[in-house]
Amino acid sequence: MPALDEDAFRRLVEPHQPALLAHCYRMLGSLHDAEDALQDTLLRAWRALPRLEDRGLLRAWLYRIATNVCLDALARRGPRTLPIEHGSSAASREGPGEPLAESRWVGPYPDEQLGVEDGREAPAARYDRREAIELAFVAALQHLPATQRAVLVLRDVLGFSARETAETLDTTAAAVNSALQRARKTVEERLPERSQQATARALGDQRVRRLVERYIDAWESGDVQALASLLAEDATFAMPPYPRWWRGRHVIAAFAAEPKHRYLPARANGQPANAAYRWDPEKGIYAAEALEVLTLDRNLIKEMTAFMAPDLFARFGLPQALPR
To answer: For 223-270, how does the pLDDT look when each residue is reduced to its tens digit (9 = 90+)?
Structure first.
């Protein structure tokens, strides 16, 4: 490829960056880690650009670099998880426990802010782009060995062939196909029967929006019965980085009895979400506290994962505080 200056290189790779960031997030389970991996990918690509002979191979070449950056990162740290995979549920009034290190947990992803589109990445892909950033899918990926994770994402999310995947991972097509079979089995055992994208399509945008509005209203007004009516019988509520979590419609709804929050609707991981702001009497404002991702089961809320990470709000286009 002819020599490019930095501005030309930036224009060349910029259209690929949102998809590369989503790829790194699927591999690593953390937006922060994914952003670091993307920067490392771009640096490696800039240094290796003279060796790219065919610009038509740019996409595959960038994914090869990004995948190997992620594999290097995974070799340096342990897997991420969600609290409901970490241990048993807590008693109704039991506290959340001491927070664990942020690096222990899968984090949320601002799909709309960072440009994850609807549809499949390629005709051969098995998963829709948004299905492949759903919280359950990303959490399931974290249970795979690093190479199996890379194989499944490259083949079933990005639609690369066995030969292209083998070239990316410096292995054989036969090894790729074997790893893919094992990875699919593990992931499918951990996924719900219906994706959140399929659930949302069945409900329709208006019913999903109304469900989230009623959920927010119940929390803000402290209406325990209204909240309970919106939850599945075996609903779960978790607050990473705290390890404990709660199960049961009435156990969770009881927490609404003392309203202290305001909420804004949001989107994360291709799913409905909300931003929670807690009253701060010293500052006289509602301060950013948690980004809560909602998982739906038909017309009820099945899982609530409230990420206690106010520093994430800016990445989701959310304010850090709300007035009284």
So the answer is: 999 999 999 999 999 999 999 899 999 999 999 988 889 999 999 999
Q: Kindly list the structural domains of the chain, giving each domain's residue range(s) and its CATH number in brackets, ordered by start.
A: 6-77+108-190 (1.20.140.160), 204-322 (3.10.450.50)
Q: For residue 175, how many other CB atoms are within 10 A of its CB?
A: 15
The C-alpha atoms of residue 320 and residue 271 are separated, in whole angstroms, by 21
Look-up of token digits 């196909």: 177
Element (H, E) at 297: strand 285-297
Asked if residues 208 and 296 have their Cβ atoms less than 8 Å apart, the reply is yes
Concatenated DSSP letters of 200-240? HHHH-HHHHHHHHHHHHHHHHHT-HHHHHHHEEEEEEEE-T
Contact (Cβ atoms closer than 8 angstroms) between residue 109 and residue 269: yes
Rounded to the nearest 5°, which phi and psi values hold at 143? -85, -5
Taking the model in full, what pTM does it have? 0.94
